[in-house]
Amino acid sequence: MELSIGEMALIAVAIVVLFGPDKLPQIARDLGAGVRKMRGAVEDIKTEIMKETDNPVSEIKREIEKVKDAAKDFNPMKDIQKDIVTEPSVTNEPLKLKPADDENYEGPVSR
User: Fold this and answer.
1) pLDDT at 90 over 60
2) CB 25 within 8 A of CB 32
3) Which of 18, 23, 61, 107 has the highest local Cβ count within 10 Å?
4) Quick count: other Cβ atoms within 10 Å of Cβ 75?
5) How far apart (Å, rounded) are the C-alpha atoms in residues 40 and 108?
6) Contact at 8 Å (CB) between 99 and 107?
7) Alpha carbon distance 44, 69 (integer Å)
8) Considering Cα of 76, then 77, then 78, then 82, what sign does the dihedral take?
9) pTM of the model
10) CA geometry: angle at 65 spanning 62 and 70, to 5°?
11) Binning pLDDT at 50, 70 and 90, where does residue 94 land?
């Protein structure tokens, strides 16, 4: 709210006329104290709002970091590779190739 010099002078004259010059210092002190209390209350409210809005954001950020860390450790290929490596050793037999997959297979020989 912007007041011009003329508007401020008119307000000052109205206050002097209404309350008299004797009460003017007390009114100014009371007005200043009221403004300081209002500013303090506004700052307290701002601080409280910032605390309340900051907590959920920081909690969400922590949860995102936990998910990222879990994703770094997750390797589905690791389990598959273990199964592939351990499967032939469980049977203790060499893998037999199908005749179609074996390049050295010549098929039945007629004599």
Assistant:
1) no
2) no
3) 23
4) 10
5) 100
6) yes
7) 37
8) positive
9) 0.40
10) 130
11) low
- How high is the pLDDT of residue 110? 63
Local structure of 3: helix, strand or coil: coil
* 24 vs 12: CA distance, rounded Å: 10
Q: Which long-range contacts (CB under 8 A, 24 or more apart) does 53-59 make?
A: none
At 1, list the tokens.
Answer: 């709210």
Distances (CA, A) of 30 to 9, 13, 41: 20, 18, 16
pLDDT reading at 38 higher than 90: yes
Hey, what amino acid is at 77? M
* DSSP-derived secondary structure for 11-31: HHHHHHHHH-TTTHHHHHHHH
Per-residue pLDDT tens digits for 52-88: 776 777 788 888 999 888 888 777 777 777 767 665 5
Helix axes 5-19, 24-73, angle to 10 degrees: 130
Q: What is the DSSP code (8-state) at residue 94?
A: P
